[in-house]
Structure formats: C-alpha cells, structure tokens
Amino acid sequence: MARARGLQAALIGASIHRRGVVLTLAVLLAALAVNFSRQASTDVFPEFAAKMVKVQTEAPGLSPEQVELLVTDPLEAASSGMLGVKQVASKSLPGLSILKLYFESGTKLQDDRWRVAQHLATVHLPTGVGAPQLIPLTSSTGTVLMAGLTSQRHSLMDLQSIAQWRIRPQLMAVPGVDNVLIFSQQTRALQVRVNPQTLQRFHLDLQEVLAATQHATGLLGGGFMATPEQRVLLVSHGLAPTPQALAATVLRATPQGVVKLGDVARVAYASLPAIGGGSVSGEPAVIIKIQESYGANTMQVTRAVQAVLQRHRAGLQAQGITLHGTLFRPADFITIAMHNVRDSLLLGALLVVLVIALTLLDWRAALISSLAIPLSLLAAITVLVWMGVTLNVMTLGGLAIAIGVVVDDAVIDVENILRRLRDNAVAEQPQQPLHVILAACLEVRGAVVYGTAAVLLVVVPVLLLPGLSGRLFAPLAQAYALAVLASLLVALTVTPALAALLLAQRGQRRPMPDGANPQHGTSTSIPASARTSAPLHTPAPVRVAQRGYTALLRRLLPHWLPASIIMLLLVIGAALLARGMGGSFLPPLQEGQYIVHMRLAPGASIQASLDEGARVVKALEQLPEVRLVAQHTGRAALSPDASGTQSSSLDVNLKPGADSAQALTAIRHVVDGFAGASFRINSFLTERLDNTVAGGGAAPLVVQVLGTHLTAIDAVAKRVAAVLTTLPTATGVQLQTPPGVPQLDIALKPGALRAWGLQPLPVLQAIHTAFAGSNAGTVFHGSVPVPVRVVLTRTARNNPQVLGDLLIHTPSLGFVPLAQLASISAASGPSDIRHLGGQRVQTVLASTTSANITGFVQRAQAAIHAQVQVPPGVTLQFQGDAAQRNATLQRLGVDVLGVFAGLMLLLSMALGRNAATAAGDAAAVTPRQAASNTTRQVLLVLLSVPAAWTGGVFAAWLVGGVLSLGAVIGLLALMGISLRNAILIFAHAGQLQREHGLAWDADTLLRAVADRLAAIVMTSLVTALGVLPLALGLHAPGREIEGPMAVALLGGLLTSLLFNLFVLPALALRFGRVEAG
After folding, report:
1. Fewer CB atoms < 10 Å away: N or C end of the chain?
2. Contacts (Cβ under 8 Å, ≥6 apart) of 126
3. Do 456 and 552 reside in the same domain of the chain?
C-alpha cells in the first residue's frame, strides 16, 4: 500500500508541477476522442443473438414426416458432434428442412460456419433434395427495412419480377445488406399445364411431356471453329423462347399426324404455386424485406437502402406502381431511443454542473469539477469504440448512471483542496499552496481509491452474466466501469493540474478575522473548540448545512438503538416486499409498432390467409392510433423464418405520438373479435429478444413438451394449452405447431408394382410432376430468367379423383391408373415437426396482459403441474421471459456472494490503519485487537448496502410494483456508491485519530462527518440528478430498461444518504471504537 501511495503522490505531484503539459495533453486527447466517437456504430441494443448457424434444405414435394426422416435426421446426425456445438434444433416443414446449430460463446462464428459447411458436405441426401444452404449471417434484429409495391395497372407477377430482378440486385449491393426477401403471391413461370384426359386420348404420359419440354428449352453451346487466322464462336439459337414456340414443339409423330405440346397442354405464363404473399392496407402487394449483416451499422444501412429505393420511386410511379418505402423501419425507434437517452445524459450532466456551481459558489472550483464529466465520458466512449462495442441505449445508460461517480472523484478532491487552502490562508505558518494541493489530494485519495475499487467490484457480476443477459447488460457495465476508471485517472492528473492553475492563489497568507482560532496544516493539532465547526470561509450553504447537521446529529448519537430498530424494520419490510414483487426479464419496448401474428386452421391456403388478413387489416386501420398495416403471409425463398401458409404477420404502424399501451389494448380488442383465427401480439425487438430467450418461441411463457412420439407430446401440449387458457390474464395461447393438416396418403403396393413391371421411383416422379410440378428448363422474358415447369392443369390438380386416375406408363403393357398401384386414403398430419436436443418437441406459447410476468408464470406452472398428467417418456421445460429472469437472478445471487467476500477484503485494507491505531498510538493496539477492530468497522460499513437496497426496492414498488432486471442491476450499482460514502466517513475519522491524536468519541465523529458532509451529500445529489431524467422518462422509448434502474438508484440513494449521515455515525460511536491494550 505504501508503494501505491507513493505512486499516487508521484503522479499527482508531476501533474501539479507539469500542469501545462498535462492540460495540453488532455485537450488533445479530448479532441481525438470526439473525432473517434463520431465513427461509432449506433444501434438500439448490442448484438444479443446467440451464436447460431442456420441451414436450409429444399425438399420439394415431401411431407414433414418425410423431410424429418430423409433430410433433417441425417443433417442432425452429421452436425451434433461438431466441436463447440451447444445445442441443435430443427424444423421439418412440407418441402423444407431448417437446422439451427447453437455454438458456445468462445467460438468464432465465421469458423463455425466453415466447419458446418464441411460437415454437411459429406451427407448424402435423396435424389431430388437440394443441397444444404447456409442462411446468410444477419444481425440480432435482422430486418432493417420493409417496403412494398402495389399497382392497379400491373399484375403481382410483374411486380414480383421488378422487385426480384430490378430492385433486389441493387439492394444486395448495399454494404451491410445480407439478404433481401421477396414475399409475393405470384411468381412468373412458363407453365406447361397438362390435361390428363388429353394425355389418355393420345396414349402419352407426363414423363414424355417433361422430356419433350426439356429438349425444347435446353441450351448448349456450339463450341468454336478454328481457322488459321482466327477462332470463330458457334452460337446456337435453338430453344423455344416463347409460349407459342414451346407449344409448337413436337411431342410424338404418328401415322395420323404430329402431336405437339399444345395439343395436350396449355402453354402460358402463369404463377408458380404460392408459398407466400403480402398486402398493404388490404391491397395485394409484393413485400420486400431487407435484412442487415451481422455487426452492420443499422443507421448507415437504412440510409443507403432508402437511397436505393428513392432512385426507383420516380420510375415506378411513371409505370403506375406505388412504392411504400417505410412499412417497417427499425431506425425510427433507434433514433428516438438514442435521442431520449442522449438527452437524459446531457440533461443529467447539466443538472450536476448546476448543483456543483450552486454548492461550491466558486466558478473555478465548479469548472474543475465539471470538466471531469466530458473528459471521463469521452475516454470511456473511445475505449468502447476501440473494443468494437456499438453506442446503444445500454452503453449510454451506463454512462448516464456513472455521471455521479465520475464527477464525485473531482468534487471530493476540489472540496478538500478548497478547505485546506482556506485553512492554509489563515494559518500562522502557511505552506506553499502547491504543497497544500498535493497534501489535500493525497488526504482523500486513499479513501477514494478504495471507494472506486468497491464501485468497480460490484459491477463484476454483471460483466460475468452468461447468455442473453450478458450480451445485453455487459456493455452497460463496461461503459460504467470505463467511465469510473477514466474519472479516477482524471482525478489523479487533470484535477490537480487545474487546481494548481486556478486555485493556488487561494492558499496565500491572509489575515485572520479577530477572535478566530488558527488552523494549521495536517501536522498541527486541532483545538477542541474547533472540532465541529465549519472551516473558515466555507461557502455559506455548506457552512449552514454543517452547523445544522452537527447540531442535529449530536442529539441523535445517543439514540443508536431506536435508529437501528427502525432501519432493521425497513430492511425486513423491503425484503418481504421484494420477495412478493414480480417482474420481467425486460419491460415492454415502446417501438411505435406492433406485429400481430395471425394463424388460421392447419392447412389453410395462402389466399385464405390473405383474405382473412384483409378483414383484420381493415378493422385495425379504423383505430385512431394506427397509421398503416402491412401483411406478409407464408414465407419467401431462403427466408430464415419459414412459416406455413396458414401463418401471417401483420405489421401495425402507429401514428407518431400514439400511446403504445392504449394502442395495444385496442389492437387486442379488435383481434379478439375474429373467432376464425388465433392471434399473438408483440413488438418487433421484444419478439427478437423473446426468440433469443426461448430458442424460437417468441412469448413471455414458453412450455416445451419433449418426447419421441408425436401423438403423446401433442396430447400433453393440448392439455397444457387448455389449462393456460383458463388463467385470468392469459392471452395468445397457442400451439406453435398445431397438428391436423389435411393430407392424402399414397401407399404404393409392392405386389402391384411387380405385376406391372414397375419400380417405385418412376411412379413417385409421375406423382411429383403432376401435382408439385417439375422444372424443365429456363427461358427469358426480356432479360428476366423464367423457369419452365410441367404440371397438371389447376382443375386437375385440385381434384382428388384425378389422383387415382393418373396414368402411369408401364414398360410393356401400356398404361395403368395409379389407383391400381397404390392405396390412397385421407389423413391428417403435422404442419411441421420440430426437434430440440435430438428429441421431438411441441411448444405452447402464452402471453399475459399483466405487467407482473413472473407472477403469471408462477401461477401457470402451478396450474400445469396440478392439472396436467405427463406420461412416461414426455418431459416439460419452461422457457421464456420469467425463466430467463430467474436464471439471471440466480447467477447474480451467486456472484454477489463472491463480491461481498471481495468487499470485506477491500474494506479490511481500507480500514486496517484505523483499527490498528488508537489516538495516534499504534503500539497500544495488539494484532488481535486490530483484527477485531477491523472486523467491526468493516461490518458497520457493509450495513450501508441493505440500507441502500431498502430504498431501491420501495421506489420500484411505488412506480409499478415490479422488479425488473434493470432495477436489480440498479441495486447492484447502489452497493458501490453507498460503500464509497461510508468509507469516506471512517477513513476521515481514522485520519483525525492518527494525525491529530483525537480519541474515538462523539466530537471526533461529528468532525469527521461534518468535514465530509459536502462530499457525501454532493455525491448522492449529483448521482441522483444524473439519473433523474431517465427516471422521469420511465416509459419513454429507449428508457424502458434504464428507467427502472434509475428509479431504484434514486430510492436507494435517499435511504443510503440518511443511513450514512444519521444511523452509521451512531453505530460507529457505539461499536466502531478502536480498542487498545
């Protein structure tokens, strides 16, 4: 410790004597920091998504069970044992497999993607199944903008072509854009629609039609012709580029004449089978969803994307196409949230500066103290940007909370320097002012360093949080810790240098007022009559406060027992209150936009979903709070969030200034009137967070039913959903993968196949071509590539009788109907099959209208355990908001125990000199007595922690009755601030003992607390003012998390201040006395 003190003395001394150099460097570094901070990436939250690689595999025509067996299971088996894989989840849909691989936090995502690609390349999949594709790596929020195209003059096929081939390439060229998804009900294709009756009349089958189409649309290069002088390319033009040319293709030549494709099929441009669709305000539309890359700057990407769209606007308008450019724009919320938090930060800083100026009544001292704020915050921002951390509401919130601690270092120094300089100015033997400044800085530096260490130690649990909690809150703790460390460096360098430049003249010799008692430097004894008096020339507000406070405290000191009982009762009451208070992992975010998830019965078509959605959109747009509603249904090709045709998302944009809570209530009331669909409402970022919390289940409560047999887990899941529906505040209860999708099972008969000389695959290929369609080639519509597809006519495809009558060509015996080769029966099956950790899983989602999500989840769990019988082989897992909150609190509880151990060690070091010295005589205290004295003083200082927590809990209860995770982290921050003030009192009392030979009595404690009164009050006051704007805007966008944190801080600062000023001195007098031999 001696060496540390020597280093501090050397650093402070060098800063005083080289103050010009120090201040010049500070100005230069501040300028560089301002420039550096302008380059920072901004977003509303840090990257919070887990490290995950997503793989999609197209399997056209396969059912979910077939996709699971033939595609998903082999892919899972190949990837489950990979290095670093933490969990494997999958989803098998009709014609599509989606595999999600979650990795440990210590791996590099690009390396993970490379390893996944290497492993999956070795998997052999059935013929007709596409190669596994790694989905582009998007950011946590994913969507950066959503736009739409509508027109009264052009078809949806035209709009889709414009979006796909004119707009999408330019959007993909924007730096930071990772994918552009197109939702359209119609996608242009050149279709050969075969009439099965005509085929039968000409004794043809679908495979002959497919082969002829492939031959007509195929394209091969002719090579080149070499002459002695040159090489001449042979360019062949033989394909049929138009529907008319393709219809004229010869299918078969017979003695009766030539049979052309046009004789057995209608060849025309038509839409591919729809897998998705969209609308804007109920009008059919093509929806364009732009997704940003992982780590991209959302604001920059948004501006660049909008610039691309703006370049297209005039040309589209001239064609009679309306471009809706901002159906969804997360940057709006980011801008408002960042402005709100930034304004809170600046307003808090201004309030702090104003209070410092009014308290010190000295512009030079106020300037020195206030400069610590910009210097410390700029230094912290610079380091954060250098570390690659985005500037978001969490980092800015951490800086706002740190303002009080940041300025506190400088305030304590400046206040003590002023006091010592005033004393020196009236001393009989004054010292050099620069020596006084050095001594004044060192006098408080030990206590401040230990207090700063305590402040930093209490945020360690937040830095160590795992998973989503760590990714969200660690940047806040980083910003807070960096600002505190920067303020300590400023206090050791810039503050002494400025004091030497601006305050040194205050220490010059001045005549003493008549009758005043002289007060010398630190080595001079203090007369008993001056022990509790304010120093000479102290600012009037401080002097009045000190006199009034010491008079009040002198009367309260003997009454330590009643004060302790009152405080104990308050602590017990707060503990009981906190135990009964619910809360949530994160509060609702005021984004100005909601997503209404609508789902019809399993098997509903795209058109049915769009029609029902149009009715809901019309009702929603009648609400006064709603500006616009856009709908997208199903999925887009290679969409990372694949949904069935029965699922839709309605993006509800609110009008500026609309009350989000009131709008949410009105939206719920509207959708409750549509009995033919189930609905779930969320905001965009809340949903992304919920997805991360529950691994794909975007709801406050997620019940995962795991097992092997679909029938068993579906039965349990239905019972769980039924129980949840009975809870009073439950809403949006639904199965994530409802069973009951209608299907026709086609079971080939092996005996019949042998009798007709057939193998299974040709029969399956015929069925696939007839009803799913087979790609035969590509032609160009202008410059746009268009697939050529062979399929039955729409009427035939939708007629179950045609399935049985479908003719299958046999090797030698002509044709046979499919009904003779297979058993065809009606059945129902799952809409999709999901796996989690190698088991099948059915998920039940539920939301609540209550703000107390934890209480709702507790009631739900109790009801499920009481009313749902879980058979062997089936297990339940509870995920969601409350589960994440409880896991985070448990981890914080364990880490806080370690923090208390560290604090005890730290306080023992800080107070060890006090406990080992009795009235200036260290030899009078034995080692055993010193250990006992230290322990008692450490325990007394630690009592300030529950006192601070008491006020934080009561404040959280008063403003809403819930204890969010943000409020809990605010309680952690209170620990350091409260301990810091308590350390100041004990450290100064010990100094008076050591350096002035005073006894541990009422007069000494009164003098110690009075001397530090201004510093303690200002510490609490400036911290409170720094976070006051956040607390006042508790529910404003961007303050949803820091607001409850600020409220907890304000309440805790009040009770901590009262305890440290009135209860702690009485307890210190009674139990903190230094015992000597």
Report:
1. C
2. 70, 71
3. no
